[in-house]
Amino acid sequence: MDTPTKTLTFETRLDLIHEQDAALCQYAELWNQVKFRWFANLQKPKAQQLNRTQFMHEIGMPFSYRVFQGVQQSIKGLIQSYQTNRNNRLVTLDVKIKQLEKTLNKLKKRCDHVAKKGCPQQAKQLRNRLRQKEVKLRRWQQKQAALVAEKQENKTPICFGGRKLLKERQALETGSAIEGWKQRWHEARHREFLLVGSHDESWGCQNAQLSPSEQEDAYQLKLFVPHQLRATFGTTINIDHLQFKHGKAAIAQAVWQNQVKKHDKSIKGQPLSFRFKRDKKGWRLLVSVEVAGPTEQAEWIDDDQGVIGVDVNPDHFAVVELDRNGNPLQHRTFDLPLHYKNDAQRAAIIGDAVRDLMDFAAQQGKAVVIEKLDFQQKKRQYQKQDHPQYARMLNAFAYGKIKDLLETQSIKRGIRLYRVNPAYTSLLGRMKYRDRHGFSDHHAAALVIGRRHYGFKEKPPKQLIGINAKGTVKTEHPPVRMALGDYQYYNKLQRWYQPLEKSLDFLSGWRHFRRVNRVSYSVEARLDGRPGMSPDLIQESTTLLSAHPAL
User: How far apart are CA 327 and CA 450, in angstroms?
Assistant: First the structure.
């Protein structure tokens, strides 16, 4: 089995003298000038863009190939990030516009109805509300049209330094305030630079070499100065006593591998990339290393004994433990209270939840299975739930961050992470396993996700039975498969099941049947020390079922 790899980044604070700080500032200014010019070159039509050699001749600022690779990767990452965010915004706007159009149609019908009834005051209020909704609709449609046009023209309007700081310039009038703003603007635009490494270079990077120091768990960094600055700062900048709070094992492994490579050419080196960033406290160094295999244990935890199925939701992880035969053993819920939290708080909450999930998987000794889904598909799935609660949750939904942390923790802990197609997992979970095991919709979907990893075929039950409030038994039969493929049949099944589930009469009985079906599960739960159903409810449900021959 292929060993998954993940690029992890660890940071440390640099303790510099004045000359070293000035050298890094000059290095960052020179590097960012090339970055801005290269980005401007990429915004031209393809026929007018210059290659690296032509570009260097034009700007008159020769850089080594490896330094220029850092510029290219930085620009590429910015462009990809902007394009991804733009696609997400288009998806969100599309769903919002469709929902608002439905709301407008309802408001218009209601306004006409109220006007016919002869309620002028209420009709006036409805017309004002209708007018506000129409203004909002036009504003969203204009934003959508602008983003679509920008995408078609392949434009990426990135503001180096930040739009917020750029807008502050409009409110300044005095010369001293303008000079202070210029200083802050310059610092914001020239506060970082990136040096990319390669496995075939000495110490993993040609321009910045990290090697062991005499002090235990410490390193020294030799930074090569560009030719334009060597007359002032010399050939190299040596920074000693670098210590990393996190990632000690991964960095030590990479440095040792690069050290041994100098004497044994058969060993492949480990590339190291260095990003220098300046903030209010000074310079930070971020070292990126590629990790292949667990760093906290020797062997991988695989799916031999079963798996942990996980359904990722905007407010929680629905987790079900399965054995090797696809039978559920227990289920858990890990909450994600992300609403009304800032970015740092959300990152901390997601990190804690992922850590708790991986602790549970390591404790059970089983691999983890998640859905192979991107953010846009996941967001569409929940935006169909036209409810303010889902709107608030989606506003804070960080699906990409969750996936990234799951991948990182799985490699660190040596827990295999598998991905499966999530198509119709919620539908099959609701129909087959929700009422049988007393699960929620999300835990039932997590069970289907775990079973799908082993290739189990999910067939819907031959009949669905519900009991309404009067005790009347209802039986419904799913459509016949005929010669349809799996996903064609599931699509047909979903079209049949959705209106049935929305039927209030059937749904009330379905909930009661759900309570009845939880009897066996709840008795076992009480034996395990977990709260279950009351004996009165068990007796009442059993008596009700025995009175119906159809069951």
Answer: 9
Residue 207 in 3-state DSSP?
coil
pLDDT tens profile 480-502:
888 888 888 888 888 888 887 76
Measured torsion, CA atoms of residues 99, 102, 107, 108, in degrees rounded to the nearest 10: 140
User: In angstroms, what CA-CA distances link 114 with 105, 172, 248, 352?
Assistant: 14, 52, 70, 52
Torsion of CA 369, 370, 373, 376, to 10 degrees: -170
Are 479 and 500 a contacting pair, CB within 8 Å? Answer: no
Print burial letters for 488-503: b (CB count within 10 Å at least 16), e (below 16): ebbebbeeebeeeeee
- Spatial contact of 534 and 464, defined as CB atoms under 8 Å apart: no
DSSP 8-state class, residue 47: G
Residue of 372, 365, 457 whose CA lies nearest to 415: 365
CA distance linking residue 4 with residue 407, whole number of Å: 9
| pLDDT of 115 strictly over 70 | yes
DSSP annotation string for 488-542: HHHHHHHHHHHHHHH-HHHHHHHHHHHHHHTHHHHHHHHHTTS----HHHHHHHH
- Count of CB atoms situated within 10 Å of the CB of 269: 22
392 token code pair: 């608030």
Alpha helix segments (H runs only) across 317-398 = 343-364, 375-383, 388-395
Contact 496, 479 (CB under 8 A): yes
User: 312 pairs with which residues across the strands?
Assistant: 317
Q: For residue range 353-396, list pLDDT tens digits in order.
A: 999 999 999 999 999 999 886 656 666 655 555 555 555 555 55
Classify domain 307-458 at the CATH topology level: Nucleotidyltransferase; domain 5 (3.30.420)
pLDDT, the chain, mean: 83
Map residue 341 onto helix, strand or coil. Answer: coil
User: How many angstroms separate the most distant Cα atoms in the chain?
Assistant: 97
- CATH 3.30.420.10 residue spans of the chain: 307-458
Helices (H), 269-374: 343-364
Alpha carbons 522 and 514: distance in angstroms, whole number: 12
Cβ-Cβ contacts under 8 Å for 39 (sequence gap 6 or more) = 75, 78, 158, 160
Beta partners for residue 368, in sequence order: 308, 417
The phi and psi torsions of 270 (rounded to 5 degrees) equal -110, 120
